[in-house]
Amino acid sequence: MKKLFFAITVLLLSQSIQASEIITVVNGYKITTDVAPRNFNTLKTSQKHKIVDKLIEKYLAANYALHSDVVNTPEYKKVLKHILNHSASNTKAKTLVASVKKHTGYTKEQLFSKKGLLAFDFILENRMKSMKPDEKVLHQFYRENKFKYDTPAMVELATIVVEKKSEAEKIEKELKKAKGNYALFSSLAKKYSKSPEALDGGYLGTIVASNINREISKYIAPLQRGEHTQAIKTLFGYEIYYLINAVPAVDTTYDMVKDRVKDDYVHKEVKKWAFSEINKLKKSAKIEMKIK
User: How far apart are CA 217 and CA 40, in angstroms?
Assistant: First the structure.
Protein backbone atom coordinates (compact mmCIF):
# COMPACT_ATOMS: atom_id res chain seq x y z
CA MET A 1 0.00 0.00 0.00
CA LYS A 2 1.32 3.44 -0.87
CA LYS A 3 1.54 5.94 1.96
CA LEU A 4 -1.15 8.52 2.54
CA PHE A 5 -0.24 12.09 1.75
CA PHE A 6 -1.38 13.19 5.15
CA ALA A 7 0.77 15.53 7.23
CA ILE A 8 0.08 13.86 10.56
CA THR A 9 1.91 10.69 9.49
CA VAL A 10 5.20 12.47 8.84
CA LEU A 11 7.85 11.57 11.41
CA LEU A 12 9.61 14.47 13.09
CA LEU A 13 13.21 13.77 12.13
CA SER A 14 14.70 17.27 12.18
CA GLN A 15 14.32 19.30 15.32
CA SER A 16 15.64 22.48 16.90
CA ILE A 17 18.58 22.28 19.28
CA GLN A 18 17.74 25.61 20.91
CA ALA A 19 16.10 25.93 24.31
CA SER A 20 12.48 24.86 23.99
CA GLU A 21 9.56 27.26 24.47
CA ILE A 22 5.94 26.34 25.10
CA ILE A 23 3.88 27.33 22.07
CA THR A 24 0.54 25.71 22.95
CA VAL A 25 -1.06 23.47 25.56
CA VAL A 26 -3.53 20.77 24.49
CA ASN A 27 -5.55 19.05 27.22
CA GLY A 28 -2.77 19.90 29.63
CA TYR A 29 0.01 18.58 27.36
CA LYS A 30 2.68 21.15 26.58
CA ILE A 31 3.76 21.40 22.95
CA THR A 32 7.09 23.17 22.57
CA THR A 33 9.46 24.40 19.90
CA ASP A 34 11.22 21.03 20.20
CA VAL A 35 8.77 19.72 17.62
CA ALA A 36 8.55 22.88 15.52
CA PRO A 37 10.67 23.75 12.46
CA ARG A 38 14.13 25.14 13.18
CA ASN A 39 13.19 28.59 11.86
CA PHE A 40 9.94 28.79 13.87
CA ASN A 41 10.93 31.86 15.91
CA THR A 42 11.84 33.81 12.76
CA LEU A 43 8.44 33.33 11.12
CA LYS A 44 5.52 35.72 10.94
CA THR A 45 2.76 35.27 13.51
CA SER A 46 0.30 34.01 10.86
CA GLN A 47 2.81 31.37 9.77
CA LYS A 48 3.46 30.33 13.37
CA HIS A 49 -0.27 29.83 13.95
CA LYS A 50 -0.53 27.54 10.90
CA ILE A 51 2.39 25.45 12.13
CA VAL A 52 1.02 25.26 15.66
CA ASP A 53 -2.34 24.15 14.25
CA LYS A 54 -0.60 21.24 12.48
CA LEU A 55 1.38 20.39 15.62
CA ILE A 56 -1.87 20.22 17.56
CA GLU A 57 -3.27 17.79 15.00
CA LYS A 58 -0.09 15.71 15.15
CA TYR A 59 -0.24 15.56 18.93
CA LEU A 60 -3.91 14.52 18.91
CA ALA A 61 -3.17 11.83 16.31
CA ALA A 62 -0.15 10.57 18.25
CA ASN A 63 -1.98 10.53 21.57
CA TYR A 64 -4.98 8.77 20.01
CA ALA A 65 -2.75 6.09 18.50
CA LEU A 66 -0.68 5.52 21.63
CA HIS A 67 -3.89 4.68 23.50
CA SER A 68 -4.87 2.08 20.89
CA ASP A 69 -4.11 -1.64 20.77
CA VAL A 70 -1.74 -1.16 17.83
CA VAL A 71 1.14 -0.28 20.19
CA ASN A 72 0.98 -3.80 21.63
CA THR A 73 1.34 -5.56 18.30
CA PRO A 74 4.63 -7.30 17.42
CA GLU A 75 4.73 -5.50 14.06
CA TYR A 76 4.59 -2.05 15.64
CA LYS A 77 7.20 -2.92 18.27
CA LYS A 78 9.52 -4.35 15.63
CA VAL A 79 9.37 -1.25 13.41
CA LEU A 80 9.72 1.13 16.36
CA LYS A 81 12.72 -0.78 17.66
CA HIS A 82 14.32 -0.67 14.21
CA ILE A 83 13.77 3.11 13.95
CA LEU A 84 15.16 3.79 17.42
CA ASN A 85 18.18 1.53 16.89
CA HIS A 86 18.87 3.13 13.53
CA SER A 87 18.57 6.63 14.98
CA ALA A 88 20.58 6.08 18.13
CA SER A 89 23.86 4.37 17.24
CA ASN A 90 25.43 1.46 15.47
CA THR A 91 25.00 -0.75 18.55
CA LYS A 92 21.59 -2.41 18.43
CA ALA A 93 19.53 -2.84 21.58
CA LYS A 94 18.06 -6.27 22.19
CA THR A 95 14.68 -5.10 23.51
CA LEU A 96 12.27 -2.24 22.86
CA VAL A 97 12.76 -0.91 26.39
CA ALA A 98 16.51 -0.91 25.89
CA SER A 99 16.05 0.89 22.58
CA VAL A 100 14.10 3.68 24.23
CA LYS A 101 16.54 3.96 27.15
CA LYS A 102 19.64 4.06 24.97
CA HIS A 103 18.20 6.64 22.59
CA THR A 104 19.57 10.08 23.48
CA GLY A 105 19.05 11.98 20.22
CA TYR A 106 15.47 13.06 21.00
CA THR A 107 13.71 14.90 23.79
CA LYS A 108 10.86 13.17 25.61
CA GLU A 109 8.40 15.20 23.57
CA GLN A 110 10.04 14.33 20.27
CA LEU A 111 10.12 10.65 21.18
CA PHE A 112 6.43 10.77 22.13
CA SER A 113 5.62 12.28 18.75
CA LYS A 114 7.76 9.76 16.87
CA LYS A 115 6.18 6.78 18.62
CA GLY A 116 2.65 8.16 18.34
CA LEU A 117 2.78 9.13 14.69
CA LEU A 118 4.24 5.75 13.80
CA ALA A 119 1.35 4.11 15.66
CA PHE A 120 -1.15 6.31 13.84
CA ASP A 121 0.43 5.32 10.54
CA PHE A 122 -0.09 1.68 11.51
CA ILE A 123 -3.75 2.40 12.27
CA LEU A 124 -4.23 3.91 8.82
CA GLU A 125 -2.45 1.02 7.12
CA ASN A 126 -4.58 -1.51 9.02
CA ARG A 127 -7.77 0.28 8.03
CA MET A 128 -6.72 0.23 4.40
CA LYS A 129 -5.94 -3.47 4.49
CA SER A 130 -9.24 -4.31 6.16
CA MET A 131 -11.46 -2.36 3.75
CA LYS A 132 -13.43 -4.42 1.24
CA PRO A 133 -15.34 -1.90 -0.87
CA ASP A 134 -18.33 -3.10 -2.88
CA GLU A 135 -17.70 -3.62 -6.58
CA LYS A 136 -20.57 -1.28 -7.47
CA VAL A 137 -19.00 1.46 -5.38
CA LEU A 138 -15.67 1.00 -7.14
CA HIS A 139 -17.33 1.13 -10.57
CA GLN A 140 -19.00 4.38 -9.60
CA PHE A 141 -15.72 5.80 -8.30
CA TYR A 142 -14.06 4.85 -11.58
CA ARG A 143 -16.75 6.55 -13.66
CA GLU A 144 -16.44 9.73 -11.61
CA ASN A 145 -12.64 9.76 -11.91
CA LYS A 146 -12.10 8.15 -15.31
CA PHE A 147 -10.07 11.12 -16.52
CA LYS A 148 -7.39 10.22 -13.95
CA TYR A 149 -6.89 6.77 -15.46
CA ASP A 150 -7.06 7.65 -19.14
CA THR A 151 -3.82 8.73 -20.81
CA PRO A 152 -3.82 11.49 -23.43
CA ALA A 153 -1.64 11.27 -26.52
CA MET A 154 1.86 12.50 -25.68
CA VAL A 155 5.03 13.34 -27.58
CA GLU A 156 8.63 13.35 -26.41
CA LEU A 157 10.46 16.19 -28.09
CA ALA A 158 13.74 18.01 -28.50
CA THR A 159 14.20 21.40 -30.14
CA ILE A 160 16.75 23.72 -31.70
CA VAL A 161 16.03 27.46 -31.70
CA VAL A 162 18.09 29.96 -33.71
CA GLU A 163 17.57 33.59 -34.61
CA LYS A 164 18.25 33.60 -38.37
CA LYS A 165 16.79 31.59 -41.21
CA SER A 166 20.29 31.04 -42.64
CA GLU A 167 21.34 29.36 -39.37
CA ALA A 168 18.28 27.12 -39.48
CA GLU A 169 18.97 26.11 -43.09
CA LYS A 170 22.57 25.24 -42.20
CA ILE A 171 21.37 23.00 -39.37
CA GLU A 172 18.78 21.34 -41.61
CA LYS A 173 21.50 20.40 -44.09
CA GLU A 174 23.56 18.79 -41.33
CA LEU A 175 20.54 16.86 -40.08
CA LYS A 176 19.86 15.42 -43.55
CA LYS A 177 23.25 13.69 -43.41
CA ALA A 178 22.06 11.42 -40.60
CA LYS A 179 18.27 11.04 -40.52
CA GLY A 180 16.96 9.69 -37.23
CA ASN A 181 20.21 10.36 -35.39
CA TYR A 182 19.15 11.90 -32.09
CA ALA A 183 22.75 12.10 -30.91
CA LEU A 184 23.51 14.39 -33.86
CA PHE A 185 20.41 16.53 -33.20
CA SER A 186 21.38 16.82 -29.52
CA SER A 187 24.94 17.86 -30.35
CA LEU A 188 23.70 20.49 -32.82
CA ALA A 189 21.29 21.83 -30.19
CA LYS A 190 24.14 22.23 -27.70
CA LYS A 191 26.22 23.96 -30.36
CA TYR A 192 23.70 26.31 -32.00
CA SER A 193 20.44 26.54 -30.04
CA LYS A 194 19.59 29.71 -28.14
CA SER A 195 16.89 28.11 -25.99
CA PRO A 196 17.37 27.31 -22.25
CA GLU A 197 17.14 23.60 -23.13
CA ALA A 198 20.33 23.81 -25.23
CA LEU A 199 22.45 22.54 -22.32
CA ASP A 200 20.34 19.37 -22.30
CA GLY A 201 20.67 18.89 -26.04
CA GLY A 202 17.39 20.67 -26.70
CA TYR A 203 15.42 18.08 -24.72
CA LEU A 204 11.89 19.30 -23.89
CA GLY A 205 10.60 16.17 -22.22
CA THR A 206 7.25 14.44 -22.73
CA ILE A 207 4.38 16.79 -23.49
CA VAL A 208 0.63 16.24 -23.84
CA ALA A 209 0.07 16.60 -27.58
CA SER A 210 -3.06 18.71 -27.18
CA ASN A 211 -1.09 21.27 -25.14
CA ILE A 212 1.22 22.12 -28.03
CA ASN A 213 0.61 25.34 -29.95
CA ARG A 214 -1.66 24.60 -32.92
CA GLU A 215 0.66 26.16 -35.48
CA ILE A 216 3.59 24.05 -34.26
CA SER A 217 1.44 20.96 -33.73
CA LYS A 218 0.55 20.72 -37.42
CA TYR A 219 4.25 20.26 -38.20
CA ILE A 220 4.85 17.74 -35.39
CA ALA A 221 1.71 15.60 -35.92
CA PRO A 222 2.86 13.95 -39.21
CA LEU A 223 6.31 13.01 -37.84
CA GLN A 224 7.45 9.46 -37.23
CA ARG A 225 9.92 8.59 -34.47
CA GLY A 226 13.37 9.92 -35.35
CA GLU A 227 12.09 12.57 -37.74
CA HIS A 228 12.29 16.32 -37.37
CA THR A 229 10.28 19.27 -38.64
CA GLN A 230 11.45 21.86 -41.09
CA ALA A 231 12.50 25.19 -39.59
CA ILE A 232 9.36 26.88 -38.26
CA LYS A 233 9.17 30.67 -37.97
CA THR A 234 7.98 31.65 -34.48
CA LEU A 235 8.20 34.61 -32.11
CA PHE A 236 11.49 33.19 -30.82
CA GLY A 237 13.16 32.87 -34.22
CA TYR A 238 13.36 29.63 -36.20
CA GLU A 239 12.61 26.34 -34.45
CA ILE A 240 13.26 22.75 -35.46
CA TYR A 241 11.54 19.96 -33.52
CA TYR A 242 12.72 16.36 -33.27
CA LEU A 243 10.28 13.58 -32.35
CA ILE A 244 11.99 11.21 -29.94
CA ASN A 245 8.89 9.18 -29.15
CA ALA A 246 5.11 9.27 -29.53
CA VAL A 247 2.81 7.76 -26.91
CA PRO A 248 -0.74 7.07 -28.15
CA ALA A 249 -3.78 7.93 -26.04
CA VAL A 250 -5.19 5.19 -23.82
CA ASP A 251 -8.92 5.08 -23.16
CA THR A 252 -9.15 2.78 -20.15
CA THR A 253 -11.86 0.37 -19.07
CA TYR A 254 -12.60 -0.50 -15.45
CA ASP A 255 -11.02 -3.94 -15.77
CA MET A 256 -7.77 -2.41 -17.04
CA VAL A 257 -7.26 -0.30 -13.92
CA LYS A 258 -9.43 -1.92 -11.23
CA ASP A 259 -6.51 -2.49 -8.85
CA ARG A 260 -5.54 1.19 -9.05
CA VAL A 261 -9.18 2.20 -8.63
CA LYS A 262 -9.53 0.13 -5.47
CA ASP A 263 -6.25 1.45 -4.07
CA ASP A 264 -7.23 5.08 -4.77
CA TYR A 265 -10.71 4.63 -3.32
CA VAL A 266 -9.41 3.03 -0.14
CA HIS A 267 -6.84 5.77 0.36
CA LYS A 268 -9.48 8.43 -0.17
CA GLU A 269 -11.82 6.88 2.38
CA VAL A 270 -9.14 6.29 5.00
CA LYS A 271 -7.83 9.82 4.58
CA LYS A 272 -11.37 11.12 5.03
CA TRP A 273 -11.72 9.03 8.18
CA ALA A 274 -8.42 10.33 9.57
CA PHE A 275 -9.38 13.98 9.06
CA SER A 276 -12.77 13.32 10.61
CA GLU A 277 -11.29 11.69 13.72
CA ILE A 278 -8.71 14.42 14.23
CA ASN A 279 -11.34 17.14 13.80
CA LYS A 280 -13.54 15.48 16.42
CA LEU A 281 -10.63 15.36 18.86
CA LYS A 282 -9.76 18.96 18.06
CA LYS A 283 -13.27 20.24 18.67
CA SER A 284 -13.45 18.63 22.10
CA ALA A 285 -9.88 19.51 23.13
CA LYS A 286 -8.96 22.31 25.53
CA ILE A 287 -6.38 24.33 23.61
CA GLU A 288 -4.36 27.22 25.02
CA MET A 289 -2.30 29.14 22.50
CA LYS A 290 0.92 30.58 23.92
CA ILE A 291 2.00 32.64 20.92
CA LYS A 292 0.54 36.01 20.01
Answer: 49
